[in-house]
UniProtKB/TrEMBL annotation:
Keywords: Leucine-rich repeat, Repeat, Signal. InterPro entries: CDIRP (IPR052574), LRR_dom_sf (IPR032675), Secre_tail (IPR026444). It comes from Kaistella carnis. GO terms for molecular function: signaling adaptor activity. Residues 297-363 form the Secretion system C-terminal sorting domain. The keyword Signal applies. This is T9SS C-terminal target domain-containing protein.
């Protein structure tokens, strides 16, 4: 009897030392991928054995995993990659040594709390259904991917070392980047952001904010900015508070029918090598089939802008990037305008006709 009790006690003791897994597929996948973690070959993983694993990233080819309870026992992991599985929640609060966490293409929903992961440098959560991500306070995250989720807001002000931010295809309305002065790349296409202030982002060199609801973007102290992609918004102004950076080579504003001007506080001009694609032939006021059919060419232009139709022009204005009128004239009936004397750069041509007003953006070479 005593031997039986001792056996039960010892068996229960060792059982208590083993990590409990809700999904046996998860446990088996770990053992198959990392045989050394089952040191005594008992087809179990003890808490002590779990401590020996520092990286878990080779489970992609194993059967579907629907629950990852047990991951909390692997307290010495610095890298964790669990992708293309079927689990909806995960508790990583005990995995405080993680520097890389990749949970893309799962079924994560609701809130994911990674606030305890202060050592984390790379976080990838693409293609889930998360509505909230709680980030570490004063975190060390440098690269953050949360594309294709259901976020309506996210606070990245707690990430002073952030270099790359990707939040494509969410429902974010406000994004405060005031504390992210190390940011180099910004990609937030397909959200609902209405205003963006990039002041003092001194390392920002590339940004894509296509398909938002932006009406204004403010630039100040962005000395290395090269590319601005802002297609399909409601942008009225680009506000360059301290002029243009020497490295700026592309501003794409295609699909911004309301765009009117670029504002700046310095007396410099838009560099001549900058490409500025913008939606062409905007019609203001009364629309008509005639105005819709008018084409302007060439663009960029060197000497003459030609119209595909004879226009009864009442007056026209040419404005520079600051919104200043550099040329105007009344009562013309022409098929072209001479622009050879204009300096190189980006201009706005406003034509007032008897059928309505046409707006044409062009680049002077």
């Amino acid at each position: 009897m005593k031997k039986a009790l001792l056996f039960l006690f010892v068996g229960g003791f060792f059982s208590a030392q083993n990590v409990e897994f809700t999904d046996i597929n998860f446990k088996n996948a770990i053992i198959k991928a990392y045989p050394a973690v089952d040191a005594n070959i008992d087809h179990q993983i003890s808490f002590e054995e779990a401590k020996t694993l520092t990286s878990m990233r080779n489970l992609a080819s194993y059967p579907l995993i629907t629950n990852v309870k047990g991951i909390e026992a692997f307290i010495n992991l610095t890298e964790l990659s669990l992708t293309q599985k079927d689990f909806k929640t995960i508790d990583v609060s005990k995995n405080t040594k993680l520097t890389t966490l990749n949970l893309r293409e799962n079924k994560l929903a609701g809130t994911l709390d990674v606030s305890s992961l202060s050592a984390l440098k790379t976080l990838e959560l693409n293609s889930n259904a998360l509505v909230e991500v709680v980030l570490p306070l004063n975190g060390n995250i440098e690269t953050l991917y949360i594309n294709e989720n259901k976020l309506t807001e996210i606070d990245v002000r707690t990430l002073p070392n952030l270099k790359r931010l990707f939040l494509v295809n969410n429902q974010i309305t406000v994004l405060d980047l005031s504390q992210n002065t190390t940011l180099e790349r910004l990609h937030i296409d397909k959200n609902k952001v209405t205003n963006l202030d990039l002041t003092n982002l001194t390392k920002l060199n590339w940004m894509s904010v296509n398909d938002n609801l932006l009406t204004n973007i403010t630039f100040r102290n962005n000395p290395v900015l090269k590319t601005i992609l802002a297609q399909n918004n409601n942008i009225e102004t680009l506000n360059f508070q301290d002029g243009f950076t020497n490295g700026l080579t592309l501003i794409n504003l295609t699909g911004n029918a309301t765009f009117s001007k670029i504002i700046k506080d310095c007396n410099d001009t838009l560099p001549s090598n900058v490409s500025v694609p913008i939606q062409d032939n905007c019609i203001l006021g009364t629309k008509s089939e005639i105005l819709n059919s008018v084409k302007f060419y060439p663009n960029p232009v060197t000497d003459q802008i030609y119209f595909s139709e004879n226009l009864e022009i009442e007056n026209y204005q040419i404005l520079n990037v600051e919104g200043k009128v550099v040329r105007s004239e009344n009562a013309l009936d022409v098929k072209s305008l001479e622009v050879s004397t204009l300096e190189k750069g980006f201009y706005l041509l406003k034509l007032q006709t008897k059928k309505g007003e046409l707006v044409h953006r062009f680049i002077k070479n």
